[in-house]
Amino acid sequence: MMSPYSISKGVRYVRPYFHAFKTNTKGRWVGKSLFEVMTKELRYSEPYYKKLVDSGKSFVVRRHENSKTYKGDDLEELKLRHGDVVHNEVHKHEPPVLTGDYLYSNTTEKLFYSEFNKAKCSVQIVYENKDLLVVNKPSGIPVHPTGNFFHNTLSELLKFELGIDNLYPCHRLDKLTSGILIFAKNHRAAKILEDHFRFKRISKHYLARVTGDFPDETTCHDPVFRVNPSHKYISTSQSIVISIKTGITHFKKISYDRVLNQSIVKCIPETGRTHQIRIHLRNLGYPISNDPTYGHETVGPLRNSIEMGILESLKYGKSIEELINKEMNSLEYNLSNELFQSVSKEFLDRLKQYQSENLVCDVCGEKMMNSFDEPEKMMIYLHASEYRLIDPQSKALECEFKSDPPKWLF
Fold first, then answer.
1. Among residues 409, 377, 410, which one has the least CA distance to residue 179?
2. What is the arithmetic mean of pLDDT over 215-235?
3. Is 404 designated active site?
4. What whole-number distance in Å separates Cα of residue 321 and Cα of residue 397?
5. Which domain holds residue 343?
6. Is residue 227 one of the residues assigned to a domain?
7. How large is the average pLDDT for residues 170-182?
């Protein structure tokens, strides 16, 4: 099978490909022609829509008429109804992701080898048997298919390179984060591992590179929450804050570089909240030095300021409802504007990096992906360095998985 991938300067690209799918007619589509839906809502160009219809790749199945299929010229006068199924085939352009070049210290070995599968692999394999696959995940690649990413995800890349049919990720690791990631190869192993994580039998150790001279050792017990960036208008505590949860992270300084004014810190979370380590490091005043969300040069400084204000008030016993009603209303408009402006700016900047100014796809009219100029923006200095399985009764170490240190350590 031909590889869908190409690699240039440490960045992995997916060759554009066709993807067939079907969609039930949405309420807002009823009474409209397929042409209107495709060109105005789905933003296909007219020439590309015509090409899809002429080739029979875009058609409508009317279930209420014994699944009659409308194709070609029949679509010109057809108005969509409830129950219609729109079949389509899109030409997908997946965003690029990083290879391991920005993580692995030994860049002379571009490929690793799976003894179990007798296959070469571009991702470093830490351990493998018939039930498990443990890898050293590069930064900048999603774990599993999501949004615009399918082939350019870790699970699909590993399945392709190793010839494995099924892989089940048993825990989370953010796209920007690197390090130990455990996959199960079957449902039985996945269930066992998920139980280990759920009942906290697995101890997770991370390395972070942060701004400032970190204390020798400390523990952060701050609750973990985020101001919700997904609402344009903010009016209730439900929309202001994503649920507040208890969070505990232990930290220990490994080293400090006076010239950079940065520290390497070991992070051991007791709880597993989303972005917990990143939020706790920010709260302590030592954010990950290249964190675009919680760092000193964040795209959303007002949100970080508000979150810190909420945290301080919570420590003095105020309820979240009281904070929202009495202190937050005046900030709602500014907050929503900043969030959307910063997100839009970040998106547009990244889009400019992804796309060539002049080249367009001659198949679908999409702008072609350019070589990505700033791969460092697709990663942060946070690395899952070690996972340990602890016996719940004796507390003895049953097994452990360790990765090689990332390149950015000093």
1. 409
2. 74
3. no
4. 44
5. 204-389
6. yes
7. 95
How far is residue 131's CA from residue 186's CA, in Å, rounded to a whole number?
6
For 371-410, b/e burial (b = at least 16 CB within 10 A) is: ebeebebbbbbbbbbbbbebeeeeeeeeeebebeebebee
Write down the pLDDT at residue 401. 97
**Encoded tokens for 211:** 């701004």
CATH of the domain at 47: 3.10.290
In the predicted model, is pLDDT for residue 84 greater than 70? yes
Using an 8 Å Cβ cutoff, are 210 and 220 in contact?
Answer: no
Who contacts 170 (Cβ-Cβ below 8 Å, separation ≥6)? 182, 183, 184, 190, 193, 194, 197
Assess if residue 169 is contained within a domain: no
Q: Which two tokens stand for residue 114?
A: 């799976």
Residue 352 in any domain: the answer is yes
Reported as a single tens digit per residue, the pLDDT across 253-263 is: 999 999 999 99
pLDDT at 310: 76
Task: Report the predicted TM-score, pTM, of the whole model to 2 decimal places.
Answer: 0.82
Q: Is residue 228 part of a domain?
A: yes
> How many residues does this entry show for the chain?
410
Closest CA to 328 of 247, 245, 228, 246: 228
Cβ contact 77:353 at 8 Å: no
- For residue 392, the model assigns a pLDDT of 80
Beta strands at 382-390 and 202-211: parallel, antiparallel or unpaired = antiparallel
| Residue of 101, 131, 174, 404 with catalytic role | 174
Measured between its terminal Cα atoms, the distance across the chain in Å is 41
Nearest Cα residue to 372 out of 13, 29, 14, 61 = 13
Helix intervals (H) in 202-265: 237-240
DSSP category for residue 405: P
What does the alpha-carbon distance between residue 195 and residue 392 come to, in Å, rounded to a whole number? 12
Condensed to tens digits (0 to 9), the pLDDT of residues 342-382 reads 544 554 555 455 555 557 787 777 766 655 657 778 899 99
| Residue in 202, 215, 204 with CA at minimum distance from that of residue 265 | 215
